[in-house]
Design brief:
Layout: E1 6-11, H1 17-26, E2 30-35, H2 40-46, E3 50-53, E4 79-82, H3 84-92, E5 96-112, E6 126-139, E7 145-149, E8 157-160, E9 165-168, H4 180-191, H5 200-215, E10 219-223, H6 228-241, E11 245-251, H7 259-270, E12 275-279, H8 281-288, H9 294-315, E13 319-323, H10 328-333, H11 337-345, E14 359-361, H12 369-378, H13 383-386, H14 406-425, E15 434-448, E16 451-464, E17 472-473, H15 478-491, E18 495-500
Parallel strand pairs: 1-2, 1-3, 3-4, 4-9, 10-11, 10-13, 11-12, 13-14, 16-18
Antiparallel strand pairs: 5-6, 5-7, 7-8, 8-9, 15-16, 16-17
Helix pairs in contact: 5-6, 5-12, 6-12, 8-9, 14-15
Bound molecules: xanthosine-5'-monophosphate (XMP).
Xanthosine-5'-monophosphate (XMP) binds at residues 298, 338, 341-342, 345, 390, 392-394, 434, 468, 505, 509-511.
Length: 513
């Protein structure tokens, strides 16, 4: 790891801190996020090419506000303060802050007053920036100059080129600052003189190295769901410690067509991973019998999962560590509805008291979803796993409205298979965030040949989204919808009607449940 250029991101508690780290990685520079009370000694040991101070909710004037040893500005290492980081820097060096009369929030026009400044290379004279602050710098320390302003913020960015200390009041890391990545790139390359030697391969190598250090000769257990995150975590740990890792894959019978076999095949045949597949389809179905309420289904599935997992884990001897595919959005969202559900499904926090692990292994904790996918590709996982769309832990159980039976599961699996096949044939599979069939609880009259039929209605759901929090219905072209509809009615028994869901989220949700 030490062979790479390194930038330190000093964390003052802002909500975008990992996003800053991610932007630095995108610029091919390795970075570490460290707490604000990091010592000067540690900083010097790490030999960073640059230091970035993040934003944060505090006011730099307050007694208990997070701060740094001002010696940090004397190390000759370039510093970029963002939002709170910029205010703190100015304050520590003798500048003044004031509360703005109104909190400045949202997209603003940034006028770059020093457009030939290296930090604004290829940015132009005017651009949009994202502001979110109450306090701002009103007077700069000696030797500092303004390099950008907005209508309400006369010191939107400042610089001391001699000391290589900079401050941005706005947030360059968010997408609402369209040239923000360029500005960070400029800080890294024009100011810190980075060369850009960080690629995913390095992440994989260093993750493997630190997994070996953490795990030593102990045994690790991981609940593999077949989803992207647990699959990538499994592969990384397997690469690090081989057969010290055991994965338990509970096949609950609620997966899509052929999915369970695909997961088993990839991990055992292709990668020789220590995998225990538990075929618990019948048990899950029996437990679910007669249950229609979606939350009751979830709870039921979660409980059965824990019981099956526990029984399998008890058969293994000497396992001390539990591994999870937790990714960064799970960390920030923990406590929210889905994070909680995902957690209990992946058996995080849902474990019974008597299974004792001495530690957790979470190699993907700092990564965003697309970075996890990139790691997956790097370690050789097939596209079918890496590009898998989000799939709910309770699986097809919440895509069957009403109670669940084996027959209904078979109908839904076939219809969903045809739907996905046609989307792939139309080349739309990468554009649509999630697309799946729903077995509605409705039966209606139809006619086939000369026969009157009374059969199920299949709902087609397809949404575009960035994060699943909000979503829009995908505008699938009519000819594609037509062939999906024709094929499902022709190929799937007991279905005589297809409807397409044209609601966004909100007010609807992505799943029907
Ligand atoms: P909704 O339906 O709430 O879904 O708009 C948003 C995203 O979350 C997924 N989802 C779940 N994932 N367990 C999961 O692991 C669940 O119980 C669950 N319910 C919804 C859904 O597929 C979508 O991606």
């Amino acid at each position: 790891m030490n062979n790479h250029e390194l930038v330190l991101v000093i964390d003052f508690g802002g909500q975008y801190n990992q996003l800053i780290a991610r932007r630095v990685r995108e610029a091919k520079v390795y970075c570490e996020v460290v707490p604000y009370d990091v010592t000067i000694e540690t900083i010097l040991q790490k030999k960073p090419k640059g230091i970035i101070f993040t934003g944060g909710p505090s006011i730099a004037y307050d007694d208990d506000a997070p701060s740094v040893d001002p010696q940090i500005f004397e190390l000759g290492i370039p510093v970029l303060g963002i939002c709170y980081g910029a205010q703190l820097t100015a304050h520590l060096l003798g500048g003044k802050l004031e509360a703005a009369s109104n909190r400045e929030y949202g997209k603003k026009t940034l006028n770059i007053t020093a457009s030939d400044h290296p930090i604004y290379k290829e940015v132009g004279q005017e651009t949009t920036c994202w502001m979110s602050h109450t306090y701002h710098v009103t007077s700069l320390p000696d030797g500092y100059k303004v390099i950008a302003k907005t209508d309400h913020c006369p010191i939107a960015a400042y610089a001391n080129d001699q000391k290589k200390i900079y401050g941005f009041q706005y947030h360059p890391e968010v997408v609402h600052t369209p040239k923000g990545s360029q500005m960070l790139h400029n800080f890294l390359y024009e100011v810190c003189q980075c060369k850009g030697d960080w690629v995913m391969r390095n992440f994989v190598d260093s993750a493997i190295k630190s997994l070996r250090e953490q795990i030593g000769d102990r045994k690790v257990l991981l609940g593999l769901s077949g989803g992207v995150d647990s699959s990538v975590a499994a592969m990384l740990i397997h690469k690090a410690v081989g057969h010290q890792l055991t994965c338990i894959f509970v096949d609950n019978g609620l997966l899509r067509k052929n999915e369970g076999d695909m997961v088993e095949k990839v991990f055992t045949e292709q990668f020789d991973l220590n995998l225990v597949r538990v075929n618990a389809q019948d048990l899950f179905l029996t437990k679910l019998a007669g249950i229609s309420d979606p939350e009751a289904k979830r709870k039921n599935i979660g409980e059965t999962f824990v019981r099956v997992f526990e029984a399998e884990a008890e058969k293994l001897e000497g396992v001390e560590l539990l591994a999870q595919g937790t990714i960064y959005p799970d960390v920030i969202e923990s406590g929210s509805k889905h994070a909680a559900v995902i957690k209990s499904h992946h058996n995080v926090g849902g474990l019974p008291e008597d299974i004792k692990f001495t530690g957790l292994v979470e190699p993907l904790r700092d990564l965003f979803k697309d970075e996890v996918r990139a790691v997956g590709r790097e370690v050789g996982l097939p596209d079918a796993l890496v590009d898998r769309q989000p799939f709910p832990g309770p699986g097809l159980a919440i895509r069957i409205i009403g109670d669940i039976t084996e027959d209904k599961l078979a109908i839904l699996r076939e219809a969903d298979w045809v739907y996905r096949d046609e989307i792939k044939n139309a080349g739309l599979n990468k554009e649509i965030w999630q697309y799946f069939a729903v077995l509605t609880g409705i039966k209606t009259v139809g006619v086939m040949g000369d026969e009157r039929t009374y059969n199920y209605t299949i709902g087609l759901r397809a949404v575009t989204s960035l994060d699943g929090m909000t979503a829009d219905w995908a505008r699938i072209p009519y000819p594609v919808l037509e062939s999906i509809s024709t094929r499902i009615v022709n190929e799937v028994k007991n279905v005589n009607r297809i409807v397409y869901d044209i609601t966004s989220k909100p007010p609807a949700t992505i799943e029907w449940e």
